[in-house]
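wait is this the right file?? whatever heres the structure
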């Protein structure tokens, strides 16, 4: 049988393949915090704590050549993701006429791509999923699988789950999919594409997901809309068996944060350890009403941008060694044609429009006494042999929110010889992405109800 898919809105999502380690900390809410601007961050027994595994652990533990090959792959996928995020910024996902709400689920973000183990179905089956804040759909590979990539563990069999239910083509949620079709006017079929070539085609369905609290209490979350993928291809399986699918955390209506918005009071936060820390060092993500410290600085999430998936913010300028660069603020703003500035835990590097990047590059190079390399490693633009003197760097966001970056958040070592490169590059367009290296060791708070993003410098491994 041949089925023609129709597009609600042409929409591709960037996706990186490198996966780092973090810990998930989640709050299952019986009510919300009475004061979300409290002076401490507390973890109660109602939080979930899950380990995330870095897929490239073996490569990182090998000789330096393997480490450099991995970093090249990380940078290449970061470039691909950034380019596709800029393209998809001119499209929207459409509106969900009947909301799906009332659920809580553990998620992870940061480091480009993270994985966690979820328990799906009744009885529950454990599946690894990759978490992506730059897309919305939740999906796993499903039996029967006509085209599947190698994954960790068994492929999910919906026929063995008593809680599995296909979504009808007439359901409102079916129309939210960017590309969908109807099988004999009964089943809602989808096709979802990512910027790196990864794709999934299958049935939209609902399932029960099982959480376990820190005290060991299981919590069933019912009727979560997800994609049951029967034809799949994924770049994150190129280096061996990978996650079974993707957990989307974007702003769109199909993301987990949108589906469970009331239960989490529209709040989540994460804190990312250094991108190259060993896998034994973890970092947290909180889903729910987590009380931020008073020192958090907030900037508005800009509503009405070209994409309903992304977290747009306003950038007023950039300073190097205390000197504000002469970059027009309009460079960072979005228009009806695209552009804008987003926080994205799924992109490794930070990407800046050409006008902003050229000034930043020149200012940073002028502050480092060592001469830049004439031929920097592939994927980078400004590199030094063994620099020891680094400038200060500050991003100024709307509402006087200033992100003061330590050197490790914008200069990274790419080999054991000490070669160090600027972890910010020319986007080649007018789209700005605040990548995860820039965000490491910042606790980043998303308050979707108040439409703000907050951040505060933190030793993430201590949370």
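ok assuming it is, sequence goes like this
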């Amino acid at each position: 049988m041949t089925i023609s898919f129709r597009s609600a809105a042409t929409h591709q999502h960037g996706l990186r393949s490198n996966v780092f380690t973090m810990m998930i900390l989640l709050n299952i809410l019986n009510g919300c915090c009475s004061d979300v601007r409290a002076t401490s961050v507390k973890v109660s027994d109602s939080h979930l704590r899950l380990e995330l595994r870095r897929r490239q652990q073996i490569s990182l533990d090998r000789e330096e050549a393997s480490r450099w090959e991995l970093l090249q792959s990380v940078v290449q996928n970061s470039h691909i993701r950034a380019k596709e995020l800029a393209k998809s910024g001119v499209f929207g996902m459409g509106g969900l006429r009947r909301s799906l709400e009332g659920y809580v689920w553990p998620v992870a973000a940061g480091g480009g791509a993270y994985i966690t183990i979820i328990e799906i179905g009744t009885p529950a089956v454990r599946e690894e999923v990759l978490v992506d804040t730059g897309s919305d759909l939740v999906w796993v590979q499903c039996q029967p699988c006509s085209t599947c990539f190698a994954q960790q563990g068994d492929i999910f069999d919906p026929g063995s789950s008593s809680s599995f239910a296909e979504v009808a083509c007439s359901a409102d949620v079916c129309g939210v999919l960017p590309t969908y079709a109807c099988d004999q006017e009964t089943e809602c079929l989808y096709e979802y594409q990512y910027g790196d070539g990864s794709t999934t085609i299958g049935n939209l369905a609902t399932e029960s997901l099982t959480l376990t609290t820190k005290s060991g209490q299981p919590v069933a979350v019912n009727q979560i809309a997800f994609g049951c993928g029967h034809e799949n291809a994924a770049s994150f399986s190129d280096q061996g068996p990978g996650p079974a699918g993707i957990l989307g955390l974007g702003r769109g209506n199909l993301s987990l944060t949108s589906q469970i918005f009331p239960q989490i009071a529209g709040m989540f936060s994460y804190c990312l350890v250094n991108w190259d820390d060993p896998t034994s060092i973890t970092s947290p993500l909180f889903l729910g009403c987590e009380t931020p410290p008073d020192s958090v600085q907030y900037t508005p999430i800009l509503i009405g941008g070209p994409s309903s998936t992304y977290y747009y913010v306003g950038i007023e300028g950039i300073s190097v060694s205390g000197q504000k660069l002469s970059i027009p603020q309009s460079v960072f703003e979005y228009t009806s044609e695209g552009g804008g500035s987003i926080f994205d835990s799924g992109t490794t590097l930070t990407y800046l429009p050409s006008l902003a990047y050229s000034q930043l590059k020149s200012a940073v190079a002028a502050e480092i006494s060592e001469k830049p390399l004439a031929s920097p490693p592939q994927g980078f633009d400004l590199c030094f042999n063994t620099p020891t003197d680094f400038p200060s760097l500050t991003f100024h966001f709307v509402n006087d929110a200033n992100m003061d970056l330590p050197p490790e958040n914008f200069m990274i070592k790419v080999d054991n010889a000490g070669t160090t490169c600027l972890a910010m590059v020319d986007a080649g367009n007018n789209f700005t992405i605040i990548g995860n290296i820039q965000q490491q060791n910042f606790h980043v708070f998303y308050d979707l109800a108040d439409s703000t993003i907050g951040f505060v410098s933190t030793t993430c491994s201590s949370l």
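The longest strand covers residues 218-233. so i think its the right one actually
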